[in-house]
Design brief:
Elements (H helix, E strand, L loop, with lengths): L12 E5 L4 H17 L4 E7 L3 H5 L6 E5 L8 H14 L5 E6 L4 H8 L3 E7 L15 E3 L7 H12 L19 H12 L4 E5 L11 H15 L2 E6 L2 H13 L3 E5 L3 H8 L4 E5 L2 H7 L5 E5 L4 H4 L6 E5 L22 H4 L3 H15 L9
Parallel strand pairs: 1-2, 1-4, 2-3, 4-5, 5-6, 7-8, 7-10, 8-9, 10-11, 11-12
Length: 368
């Protein structure tokens, strides 16, 4: 058996490189918690895309962040060079003990080239998403890509430290309070003993979304069956129009949008369940131990659905016979999204009802 790496936690410094996307960053936050538990006096820093820095800044186990803009400004050479220059300047006098590259692509390989560290750790050849990343790391770690995604990140760091002791991720609460505009609605619904369901149907990928018609039909059935109150969340003007339309359709509903991410999670902690597709909303709720029910199509439920009995979900099937471990190869190009848009509403209602009734009748559940 390989010995654990001997480390001086009093002077040890880690740098996590996980720049995007939002949901993937959320999955990786437990790595910072693990490092703090194993090395209580260590310092944990994080490299993240500028547009996601508020999320990492709100994470209690992260001591410092180093934002950089690559994807957002890559079409503007001047802005890109300016961002890289600022990033290099912020790291000028920094030498880290270990850099943990959880991104595993060409972009993070370039970022690693700008960082001084005693050891740079990345994914193995069979796990890395883009092969040039292999040139930027000293140690390579293999993980099971079919395992649940947050477990993959924890396995990565535990394998590097040859740590076989159990580690149970704790909830990650991002510091903030929910919007005051929600409080009156929340009080009224709780006074009437209604369960409040937050509905987050949006996704950056259209092929990950349920059809509007299916969502309307499903929510109508659930409202009739359970007398739910709904909170609809939107992130764009198009989604806002849909959220307003949904709010007018059901008896007890409101809508909110464009929330600071920590405020959004604080709001989640005041509802009974979050209904979502494979998106940042699902993963933001899961790290706060908020029950979720999610619908998957071109991404794998077994990989991306949160772990635990308080999380349920449904996986659509591809009518074209495509199979995959994490994401369908046609995610960006499929013109129908039939794997998720073709799921029958009756099937969704049946799966949700079975999960919900089990969740809220179990003596051991941790539901509010």
């Amino acid at each position: 058996m390989q010995k654990k790496r001997s480390l001086d936690s009093h002077s040890y410094s880690f740098l996590i490189v996980k720049m995007s996307a939002l949901g993937d960053i959320i999955h990786a936050l437990s790595v910072a918690d693990y490092l703090k538990e194993r090395f209580p006096s260590c310092r944990v820093s994080w490299v993240v895309e500028e547009r996601f820095k508020d999320l990492v800044s709100a994470a209690p186990s992260v001591d410092a962040i180093y934002p950089i803009s690559i994807k957002g400004v890559r079409k503007n050479l001047f802005s890109l060079l300016q961002s890289i220059g600022s990033f290099k300047k912020s790291l000028r006098n920094q030498v880290f003990d270990v850099v943990l590259d959880l991104q595993g692509n060409t972009k993070s390989a370039f970022v690693l080239s700008l960082i001084k560290a005693k050891k740079k750790v990345g994914f193995s050849k069979s796990c890395v998403s883009e092969w040039p990343n292999l040139l930027a790391t000293h140690s390579k770690v293999e993980v099971d890509l079919s395992s649940q995604i947050s477990s993959q990140y924890l396995t990565f760091v535990k394998k590097y430290f040859s740590d076989e002791e159990s580690f149970l991720p704790k909830p990650v609460y991002l510091a903030d309070k929910s919007p005051e505009s929600f409080h009156k609605f929340h009080k009224e619904q709780k006074y009437a003993s209604r369960r409040i369901v937050m509905v987050c149907p949006g996704s950056n990928w259209e092929n990950k979304r349920l059809s509007d018609e299916s969502l309307r039909d499903l929510l109508q059935r659930l409202e009739t069956r359970f007398d739910f109150s709904f909170v609809f969340i939107y992130g764009s003007e198009k989604e806002k129009v849909f959220a307003k339309e949904l709010t007018s359709r059901y008896k007890h509903a409101t809508y909110l949008g464009r929330l600071k991410i920590s405020k959004w999670q604080a709001l989640m902690r005041e509802v009974d369940l979050v209904f979502a597709v494979d998106s940042s909303s699902l993963h933001l709720a899961s790290i706060a131990d908020v029950p979720t029910f999610s619908v998957f199509g071109p991404s794998s439920l077994s990989v991306y659905k949160p772990l635990g009995k308080i999380h349920g979900g449904v996986q659509g099937t591809c009518p074209y016979g495509k199979t995959f471990v994490k994401h369908c190869p046609l995610l960006r190009t499929c013109k129908t999204g039939a794997c998720i848009k073709g799921i029958q509403v009756k099937e969704l209602e049946k799966s949700f009802t079975s999960f919900f009734e089990t969740l809220f009748t179990a003596d051991t559940n941790c539901v509010k």
